[in-house]
Amino acid sequence: xxxxxxxxxxxxxxxxxxxxxxxxxxxxxxxxxxxxxxxxxxxxxxxxxxxxxxxxxxxxxxxxxxxxxxxxxxxxxxxxxxxxxxxxxxxxxxxxxxxxxxxxxxxxxxxxxxxxxxxxxxxxxxxxxxxxxxxxxxxxxxxxxxxxxxxxxxxxxxxxxxxxxxxxxxxxxxxxxxxxxxxxxxxxxxxxxxxxxxxxxxxxxxx
Length: 207
Prior knowledge:
Elements: H1 3-9, H2 11-20, H3 25-65, H4 80-95, H5 102-108, H6 111-116, H7 123-127, H8 142-160, H9 170-184, H10 186-195, H11 198-203
Helix pairs in contact: 2-3, 3-8, 3-9, 3-10, 4-5, 8-9, 9-10
């Protein structure tokens, strides 16, 4: 085993894989590489889901409040997290010497922002009158929707931080993401299923 590779990965990060490999360091590195491959495949699917989610929510609320920049015209005060998210998105766009147009702001907002719009604080102001319409192909309660969106966000963040996800039931996680896209648009679900490389990569596991 090349010690320089181990030094760069760090013992702390590799330790989870060593446990999974029952102490075999070479096998642990194989598991580390496999984790990278399946994480990459899941991230592709999450990317498709994230775009579908934010655009469906955006279009729903644009129609509800009759404004492309609906986030500046909601008839209630944003909670601190959402307000910071909006301010940060606008500032980041200005930093790039661009005008913070509604389209750019929507693209800049984090997945966390969109997830929190389905949270309990916005139940009466957003979910009941408007936001449930962003999921036209599934009759959803707010709590069910929020829990699914939250779970996908947690998985996304774990992948983005290069964490080990092999302790999860990844085929089930993949199917949950695909199902959530189907709540928004069955045709988009089918498209994502067709380009997803997750199943092939998952079945390639040899370690």
